[in-house]
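Okay, is this right?
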Amino acid sequence: MSFEEDDQVVLSDKHSEFDGETGTVTQTMESMFGDVTYTISFEDGQESGVPEDALEAADDADE
């Protein structure tokens, strides 16, 4: 599943301080190899270079 700007997503990355938090996609970037990474904005900061497989769509109840 790909995400667009302003989508609400949950980050699953045990190495991130935002692991398990819901954030908003603020930017999508495609590498020269065709891989897409995302910048996610959270209440207390942001995480850049997040791969698609570390994200899942947020439920409406999480908002």
Residues 8-62 form one domain. The chain is about 0% helix and 50% strand. The CA atoms of residues 49 and 63 lie 23 Å apart.
